[in-house]
Structure formats: C-alpha cells, structure tokens
Amino acid sequence: GGGTIKLEPRTMRLLVCLAGHAGQVVSVEQLLDEVWHDVVVNPDSVYQAIAMLRRVLGDDAKAPTYIANVLRRGYRLVAPVAPWVDAPAVPQADPPAIKSTVTTGPIGDKSIAVLPFSDLSEEKDQEYFADGMAAEILYLLANLPGLTVIGRTSSFQFKGKSEDLRTIGAKLGAAYVVEGSVRRSRDRVRIGAQLIDSKTGAHRWSDTYDYPLGEVLKIQDSIAAGIGRALQVTLDVDALQSRPGLRNAEAYDLYLRGRHALDRFDKSGIEQAAGFFQQSLDLEPTLSLAASWLADTYFVAVLNEWVPPSVGFKRIREATQAALKLSPSDAFMLGLQGQVSLIYDWDWVVAETATSEALALAPRQPFVQYCAARISSA
Length: 378
Known about the structure:
Layout: H1 9-20, E1 25-26, H2 28-35, H3 44-57, E2 67-70, E3 74-77, E4 111-114, E5 118-119, H4 127-142, E6 148-149, H5 152-156, H6 165-172, E7 176-185, E8 188-197, E9 203-212, H7 216-230, H8 249-262, H9 267-283, H10 288-303, H11 309-326, H12 331-345, H13 348-361, H14 366-377
C-alpha cells in the first residue's frame, strides 16, 4: 500500500527467496539451504522467520494473502509479484528461479559431515531409527569445540544417494564424512560407523557396536568420542560423559518416532510428534530428550499458529519447566524459557537471565544464538 516495512536481513532473504519462486511450493529444506546456507540451524529458524514475516505483513495463516502453508511440502508465496514500480519500462524477463545448491567453501582441517545412516534391518522398517541415530551423533559432535559440523539439512540431502564420498565432502565443504548403518532385531541393535577422509577416501576410524537397545545412548557417546580422538580434537573427549542405560527401551523408540514425525514440518506431523514424545515420557518420565523435544514441538505449533497463543505458550512453559527439572543445564530449554518470557510474558529480567545462562552453556548452538539476538534487538 505504498508503505515501508523494515525487516531483518535474514527475514528479507527469506521473502526474496519465496518471491523468486512465486506461486511455487518451497520446501523447508530448500529454504534452509538457500537462506541459511552460511550457518548451521534447524527447521525452527524457518518456522520463526515465517511467523515473523506474517506478523509484520499482517497475514493470517488460516486465510493467507501472502504466505500459504502447503501440508507436508513447505510454503508458497500467494501474493502477486511484479517488477518495482520505478523500474525502466522495458520488457521484463521472468525472474530467474533460485536453484537449491550447496555452497562449496574451503575445506577446514576439522570440518565434518554426518550422513544419514543406512537401515540394514530385515524388514527395512527402521528408517526413523537410523535417521535418529545419525542426528543424535551429529548433535553430540556439534558440541565438541574444534569441530566444524555441517548442518543436518545439508548432510541429509544425500539420503538414498550413491555419490562418491569424496564428491559429497567437496560439495559440503567437509574434510571428513561419517557414514554408518543400523541393524535392529527385537531388543538388540548393531550400529556400525566409519570416518572417511573426503580428500583421499581413506578410512580414519571405524567401529561396530552390538548391544541391548537400552545401551543405545552409550553407543552414541562412544561413536562421538571415537571420532573426536581420531581427529585429535583439542578436548578431553571423555567430557562426553556416558549417559546411563535406558530403563525402558520402548520409550527411546517412541522418542525417535517423534523426531521422525517432527521432520515432516506440517500440522499432522507436529501433532503426532507431541503424542510420541508424551508417550515416551509416560513410559520413562526421566528421559530428558523427550521432555526437551516435547517443549520444542509445542513452540513450533505456536509459531505456525496451529494452536492459540494462550494455549500454546502455557504448554511450552510447563514442558520447558519439566525438561529443566530433568536437565538444568539444557541450553536449548533455557533459551526457549527466555523466548517465552520475551514473547508472551514480556518479562525482560527472566528472558535475559535465562538466555545469558544458555549462551554461557552453549555459545555455538544456533538456537541459543538466535535467542540471544532476539533479546539484544528487543
């Protein structure tokens, strides 16, 4: 309407990306690759940026005039797109489509990508479990100082593809690539993992673990520690304290099913994820991973306006408090606590305190950095 709206640079890049694909569906993965290609973030960044755009534009997710949700697929800009009014009156070519690419940067000595693990189970029904193993190991490695870990969205684009690992490493800008496999049979699991030099294709480290399903957390820690030692990361890798065995293996299985449902990025997936996480906690109330992701799931639902704020933020607050009781040093939950205080409660003191604690615990975690930026700009 002739007015001017000021946007943060990243939010503006998101709008430009959607405009470059006006009328087309753009997936969350594509938005992450094109708008956040220079940082390691999770899908929450997309949800939050979309929600911010809608607030600024006065858009309604249920009756959109700008950005529409496309279930299980992504987002589509439905507003008309045309050249700027002051552009020269010459025939305008259609705006070039923005291609989804992976930026190839200089390969660092300690840069690493974790590829999706293969499901070698007889029934081929453990994809959610294999994906969950790879994702959990990626997050463990991301907390090791001295390692540059390629984001999950970038790494997982090679799922099901048979490209040479040297080619994958070059495309991702990773000096090393981790690949693995999962074979699950009843209450036991066998996980194999190997670290490959992406320049030469040579093996740097490999190991196989065959344990009861309840020991899966220890397996993840052992893999991360083995990779850290192989790369001689300047850290006492034993600081990755082995977590205790699970009291209920079914609870962890439900947690992984929740993570898999959450990755669908739609309302149905969010509802299923919340259900799986809650079932997991019902079976094992002390499983902090399920508690943390349940809170995050509620946050995603609120940002996408799938539940009213008065309902959603109450759920987030209760779930966050429960998660912090189980794990007081969970930086992600402290950051989320700060966001609830900032966005809904308008309690600046609590917001700043929680965010500062989160930043001190995990200064490299993307969500924590996002929370700190939001506090600074408030």
